[in-house]
Sequence to fold (107 residues):
Amino acid sequence: MMVVLGALQELTVCWKKIGHYNMKCRWIPGTAGYGESMLNDPVYPIANQHSIIETDEAIATVNVVKFEVQLYKARDEKYLLDLQRVQGPQFLFLDLCAALLAQVQVI
Fold:
């Protein structure tokens, strides 16, 4: 899970831990990262949505991609990563998925 969280951090994705292997995530294309403290804090910047979307609210809300990540352990040290889009443009979500897979060196 630490590899997945590190990859999400590199892609400037905000997340909130729901369970040990389940995260609610939000990605706004073009936002700056939140630094290394994201891995150490129990709650991540997803909680305060109004402070993030202040400058150009109309454009930012259209491009926000919300999704959930669930990690499953399969047999023989194999893992399955389930990404489910909750809200936002489909193509931006697919771009994010491709970038995440490249970041964790699957493709």
User: Anything to note?
Assistant: The beta strands are 14-19, 22-27, 65-73, 79-87. The chain has a mean pLDDT of 77.
